Amino acid sequence: MSFDASYPVQTAASTERARKALFTFWHGRQDVLLRICLRWTRGNRADAEDLLADAYLRVLEVAHPALWDAVRPLALCTTIIANLARDRRRRERVRARVHSQPRGGHSQLPASASGPHEIAYARERLARAMAGTETLSSQQQRAFTLRVAGVEYDQIAHELATSEDNARKLVQLARSSLRSSFVV
User: Fold this and answer.
1) What's the CA gap between 182 and 184, in Å, rounded?
2) CATH code at 47?
């Protein structure tokens, strides 16, 4: 980590001043920020309040006095809310896509398979992969499917009601088992 002389050193007193300024700003504009969150959550008040709480925590993380003095606080908070809301929507879309896929509905061939040999090879690999997934435990199948869909390990652990380390191990075991099904 290098030292950047252009960015002032953060002291306990300056951090406390920044947090007090943030607290005053946040509670003075909480109704405006909640309305912004309501727009992002399409009127769902519970989700909007969760988004607002997450945004407050994120703003606290960046409450460096030099940053807080240099930017427009409302613009910063609005940007943080928008980014968090977009992240939530992406996670919801991935989760919906993973949950809506029918079992065994992975029969689509890649678009790059153009000739008959490539199509036959792709079908063979798909059949091996499908056979390999049948040998996995239900927990391994679920963890592997979620991970392939881009879900983070902490979310997989939450979904499976297990620890994050166990979620990683389930995915690792599934990958290992699938790899062995491709060895001729």
Assistant:
1) 6
2) 1.10.1740
CA distance 130 to 136: 10
pTM: 0.46
Distance CA 122, CA 106 (A): 12
pLDDT tens digits, one per residue of 93-152? 877 776 665 555 455 545 554 667 777 777 777 777 777 778 888 898 888 888 888 889
Residues 69 and 21 in one domain: yes
Q: Which domain holds residue 69?
A: 12-99
Neighbours of 126 (CB within 10 A): 15
Q: 77 is written with which tokens?
A: 């908070």
Contacts 24+ apart (CB under 8 A), 22-26: 22/59, 22/60, 22/63, 22/68, 22/73, 25/73, 26/56, 26/59, 26/77
